[in-house]
Amino acid sequence: MRKLFHYTDHLEQVLPLLKKIEKAPNLSSKRLSQLAKKHPLKNGSLLSKTNIIRAYTGLAGKHGLAPFNQKIVKKIMMKPVRTISGVAPVTVLTKPFPCPGKCIFCPSDVRMPKSYLSDEPGAQRAERNYFDPYMQTYNRLDALQAMGHTVDKVELIILGGTWSYYPESYQIWFIKECFRALNEFNTNDDRDKIREKYKTIQQKLEKDKKHVLSDSPKENKKRFSDLLIDGENLDKKYNETIAELYVAPEKKLGIDVIQTANWEELFKEHKINETAVIRDVGLVIETRPDNISEAEVIRIRKLGCTKTQIGLQSTSDDVLEKNHRGHDVAVTKKAFRLLRQAGFKIHAHWMANLYGSNAEADNKDFDKLFSDEDFYPDELKVYPCSLIESAELMQYYKKGLWKPYSHEELLSVLEHVLLTTPPYCRLTRIIRDIPSPDIVTGNKKTNFRQIAEQSIEKKGISSKNIRAREIRYETFDAEKAELKTELYSTSVADEEFLQYVVETESGEKLLAFLRLSFPKENFLEELKDSAMIREIHVYGRALEIGKKGKNHAQHFGFGTKLIEEALKRAQEKGYKKLSVISAIGTKEYYRKKGFSDGDFYQYIDFSK
Ligand code: SF4
Hints:
The chain is of the alpha/beta class. Among the domains are: 7-76; 288-459, Alpha-Beta Barrel (TIM Barrel), CATH 3.20.20.70; 470-605, Gcn5-related N-acetyltransferase (GNAT) (Aminopeptidase). The protein has helices spanning 11-23, 29-38, 49-59, 70-76, 121-128, 133-146, 168-184, 191-204, 217-223, 238-253, 255-258, 263-274, 294-303, 317-322, 329-341, 359-368, 393-398, 407-420, 448-458, 466-469, 558-572, 587-592; strands at residues 88-93, 153-159, 279-287, 307-313, 345-352, 379-384, 426-429, 482-489, 493-504, 507-519, 530-538, 577-580, 596-597, 602-605. The strands form two sheets. A seven-stranded parallel beta sheet has the order 1-2-3-4-5-6-7. Strands 8-9-10-11-12-14-13 form a seven-stranded mixed beta sheet. It is globular and about 70 Å long. Bound molecules: iron/sulfur cluster. Iron/sulfur cluster binds at residues 99, 101, 103, 106, 114-115, 161-162, 288, 311.
């Protein structure tokens, strides 16, 4: 077990360091690491930024230190951008489990859920926590808080393989445990108990010790070294190995019974979270388009989901087929239509450089995302295909059938992506952050986004996508904020993207937005004749619920103004209701704004 750092055991080393930090007017990262080197712990190790903040938070106002000052935390903070969009993201991974897909580009790391790599930092965090949802959520909150972030508004992002393919009882349990961690954070702590449970299970699997996943990524690397799946070694396919390694022993030991919950148990945690200190303001799951049906949409809504990450990968049937995707474009379109009617935010994954495509074809493929009315995603992750040893694509590469794009080709596609994405879509990523040792050949620059952005800047143009316009740390004059609307039409709804923007020295910046949807049809009885708020986002550093800060977009009431505007527009268009796909932890907020609780949505009925 990793030994937790307790600053009280190291006062002699920690206090002089904190005193120097207090006095340092402009503390650069370099200066901070110089100071940390001057004050090592007794065993010679250096204090991480996280532990310095942890110590400062606990010791401020004592032992000759001045009272707590958030500015000091800011000085030390590791990644100030993480909660700049106003919400703390907590990403958790599901356990390794078979996936119905056979996509040739997808890595097969048997220590991970399909498509994830054990070298990725988020994946290692999950592994250190036995992929347990409570431990992952709790420890992430702990780390974010120790880094000085406010964590009372959390977007839970559940990644890993194909969500809808996991047993329903596992899904309910997983989300229930995430919520339990939010609800118990800082008041109750079950982590030791849970860790002990996994340790006991490990001991029971002693005979097979070599392939038992421990909580040490380093140790697991050794234990699983003979189980690497490569493009040549396809007889040991991921699903079979996983079934043998985890699914069968889990059944034998009754782990599948432990990792089970029923709907009532989940609803109980949901209810607690509605008024908890740490609230869930968004819940994201990741799945395949062919797993989306009317019933599935209702089921994931029941789980509390508000957004889906969905792999569309390509808008070409030919490319999907060549990559053994297992479904065609018509299926993707249907999934988009159902999710949009149900009010979900659609976070799509699109890939460049797939087998069977080329840079020119990719650009045309990408254009369809915003010209074909069946698409129009709200957010996008763009993943140029990377060659990973454990993907079937290796064979195609060896036969000379596929090769990675040159720097110029990749740049041309990513520039096109940046410039074509409209103002109502957020380009969350345009390159997957794969550790370079995992990439056999091709681009290894994880800062390619920056390269592409700088390249278009040199040409005097910039991207208009949401991420490029977020206000972040810039100060602004709220009096000059202006309400603008972007209109677009999809096959199932007319969409209005309402946004408060302001001109700053660096151009037009986004302060807040609301996605207002006017459905043309709806399969959900509850949403008949109803307009829909699919998302509200007010930017600014995360503020604690109920608190107001200066210079934050969250301070100026943009959320309320946007809701009022949405109500007005829905009424003018003759809709009988305005519904909202609220997250569990935002229900109270909407109740205060006059919304009533429905079965799966909250609403205001104009006739009452
Ligand atoms: S569906 Fe997703 S996780 Fe499964 S093989 Fe395809 S890309 Fe990988």
